[in-house]
Amino acid sequence: MIRPISPQQRQSLVINACAFATATLLLALVALVGYMTWRGSAFIWPDPIYLVQYNEPDGEVKQAYAQWHKGAADNSTVRLSVSTSSRPYQTQSILDASQFLFSEEVEQAAQIELVDGRTILAVPAAVSDVNNAQLPLSELSVQTRSEDIIDRRIAYIRRVELARLHENIAIYNRREVEAEAPGRLQLEKAYAALQEELRLLEKKQQAYTLTVRFYDGETFSIQLADIARITYPSTMSLPDKAKAAAISLWYFLTDSPKQANTAGGVFPALFGTVVMVFLMTIIVAPFGVLAAVYLHEYAPKNPFTAMLRICVSNMAAVPSIVYGVFGLGFMVYTLGGQIDSLFFADTLPNPTMGAPGLFWAAATMALLTLPVVIVATEEGLSRVPNSLRMGSYALGATKFETVWRTVLPIASPSMMTGLILAIARAAGEVAPLMLVGAVRFAPDLPIDGTFPYFHLDRQFMHLGVLIYDGAFNSQPDTKGAAMMFAACSLLLLVVLILNIVAVVLRTRLRERYQ
Amino acid sequence: MTALSQQYDQRMRKDTRIRRLVTLFGGGILVLLLVIVWHLVSQTAPLFISPSFEKAQTFDFPDRIVLSVGDILEDGLLVQQASPCGIETAQVSEQNKVVDRILKPCTHSLSIREERDQRWLFDISANGQVRIQGIDGDNATYAFALPETDWQQRLETDYAISLPHIAIRVTTASQHLIFWVDTRRLTDIHKDEYPASDAVVLLPGQQKVVTFQGRKIALTERGRESRQTYQHDYPINWIGRIENSRSLYVSDRSGKVERWVVVNKSGRFEYVKTYSLFLEDNEQPLTVQAHANTNAGFVLTDMGRLILFNRVSGELLDIIQLVDIPISWSWYGNRLYLVYPGKVDVWTINNLAGVNTPTSLFVPQWYEGYLGPEHVYQTSSGRDFNEAKYALIPLLMGSLKAALAALVVAIPVSIGAAIYTGFFTTRRWRKSIKPAIEMLEAVPSVVIGFIAAVALAPVADKLLTSLLLFIVTLPLLLFVVALFQHRIAVKMPTRLRFGADIAAITLCTLVWAGLSLYVADSVMPIEIFSGSSKTTLIVAIALGLAISSTIYTLAEDAIESVPSGLKNASFALGATRLQTLRNIVLRVAMPGLIAAVMLGFGRAFGETMIVLMVTGNTPIPSWDLFESLRALTANIAIELPEADTGGALYSVLFFTALTLFIFTFIVNTVAEWLRYGMREKVKYD
Fold it and tell me: Does residue B472 belong to any structural domain of this protein?
């Protein structure tokens, strides 16, 4: 019999196959993280502005300022974000490679980002001041400053003075004060006066404009109040670009989503995630740690304890959506409904706690992450050498004193590990949240300046839900998808860092008491 | 001394207190789990309890003639005869206060018909002037004229409304005259004539009439354009329709009531027999009514029996015997109002969600409009009187299909990697590779789902072609590498060998994958998979990636825990590493490996976000990998926020959640038991 390969080679084949499997998994991880970061960075990294020339589908040759993202999936098409005089706000157009004629970087063109999240690519030409006088471009910063003063005044009137009047009128309405009551008339007069002032201020503000010119020579004027940022990406050196990227990153982290989650930032989602996770940690920490202490330190070694352990490990394997179902059915509708009928009966039938909201989301997540905390803490407790406990007892300490003073401090890194893993899990889990309170858009943050400041009953935004929503509402390879990729990278980064910290902590504890 | 003992007592008391507290929290886990199970079961229970009638209330109206009753327990209006002629609507909850009064000349013929919670007053003057007006809410009015001579010859009349169509039957001594009116063109009145020897039932929703005589049934379209005739087994004595006219109930002399359902046979609507309900001898139905939002229906017979049944599957749910036969009835939510002269009885139907019996969830049903019994899951139909279709088989198949396909992807990769780090490589490499692969488990599934949906799905054709190419050519690559590896490896210093191994393979994999992608793009432009849905395959890859680190971690633990004594003994007997792997390591670790795969399967089965984001979420009962799917988990995420608390859909969704819970519980317990057994064995070996 002729062996096609020697035993040695056959062994190599198996090892190679196994090594290939390992390599696949590692590469998958690297590819995942790398791809996310690469696509996400397109959102913050400034793209140069080009003058492009291309054929419209009807054969017409067009020239315009455009940016394009190199994240396109294939080489046969070019995806341009064009800004023209007929359509000033940057829009995506997908061209066949054959339609694309040439491109050239233009230094004087600016990327003008508006407050509402839209972008214009054009050459700034002139500034007009409050008297509509055309001033040179160098006046821009001066005029912006004086416009800013008006802007602030308007904001103050809106946010403080008008809000106060609204509140007072609302009180009158609630008390059913007559329409002709003097107090009410006075309020209404003050209200009208403020409205008039606002109107004048707004008119004044509208005079401040920036005139820009598109490639075809047409001009377009933009109100200064609408402009968020003006940058010249084509003239930027590398450090400048890095700085611009850092500023973009900052806006990404601190701004609200705009233009249907395709521009702006993710602040409300990030904030919602953090608050929810924080609340969850407060709920899950005592429960998880005490349950683990019971299982490892107090529970007798009997079938009941074994069953408890099986329960814990089974709870970890229950699909997360089932916790969502339980959270909605039991916590929100049953418990929340009870709470409403006891404490918030005056607002019924509008539910207060009987509707999905922040607190129930945190509680559901706490339930979901409970086994994580228990298992990690128990593992830490089991690593504490028994001799330490014996020593403590020998010195006359009670069980509680031993656990509290000796065992728990030593096992504390494992509790931290458990909590960090729980946080990482809660930050990344989306399915149950969609049932118990996370929404694609929430008008208010869960913490704000109105009583009672911390709104446990409010719905909130969550990074994961934002991403889920983005998958359905964004077209691939637009700026919007880039923002979703950036949100993905952020989530991935947070979760991976938390996990790495947890792993390092655990390894340290293991090594200390090997 | 006392101070010291006091202090001691205090400490002991505190110790006891804390012990109790801690025990409370430990027991709390069990309580929590029991509460979860109890809640899921309690919300699912309605599906397994048959609904039943219960007499709730009787309203006496001795001094008035009740014509029609609205949902009077929920502020609906009672319609009563006004004096001298005309109708009044009254609010029962406010001492029968008259809300509205419509007076008519006494020569007019008045009649009330109901259509989708809206009652209409048919008012026809002596010379055939018709005025139809809404009684509840909608105040639309339709007025038109019937030919005066036809109307004045009437012996009997019938009315039916299903907007936008109205049908009026005027029966004269010699024939039935059917007047069809389209409310959008009121002047255009169509008249059909049928012989008086036939019995006629109007089907306004289908714009048809059914006529029957003896054993013959004929369905005729408006304008008599098409006509279908059927021969029945027994002489027919009654035909009834439910409100949407999509199901007919045919009762014959044998005591059988057959449901005939409309089917669309290539554009032609025909009626086909499905199940039968069986009545007593000589019993005949008086009416068949369908519930607006569930699959419940009831039959009232001339012997006073009220039969509640599932109108899709034909299962009988509850039967009660009424003392008197009511003259009219209406059904709102779980309240059934039976109108008698001088009084109204209110029956409530307990547990209406129980209409969806297990049979109707798991056995193919013949729904209205379908060509045969099928598994259909469809809840989005918002129209009243449409049948609810809650077949769970498509969802179960979807979940299983996704999970099994994911396993096919995950098993080779993760077990291979587990063998590599657990057995072949050195401790040093293991320590750096293992945590890296375990990081994969931390990647949120929504991120994997997002990449799969936004980045992979649009290029699925290319991706799958190149993947196919890659997998087919891979053995060749590995084979070639294997031929030379040994020769190169022996020349390298021992310390470098393992590192070089994985590095070389990683590089090869990368180059080869890149090459496959490139080749798929340029050399093989034929799209092998074009035209069919690729989402299941994309899900398999994404879900496979998500579960592979779960399987890897557990499998690696199992392989690594094989005692080194066993391995060394094998080596000492002259076995190669491959032989040791096959004969010792895999054999000992097998329970652990099976447990790992089971837990991976459980995770794939319960995963929500990836299947939700990547698949088209269309519930198709098919195992075909080129068909889209909808998983149980995704279904909950889609439907639960919209479901009414306590409704049928709510119970069905809780039932699926309970199924998921029990399934993972069993899988996990078995896997834990396998792992436990293996640990014990390894300990004593």
Answer: no
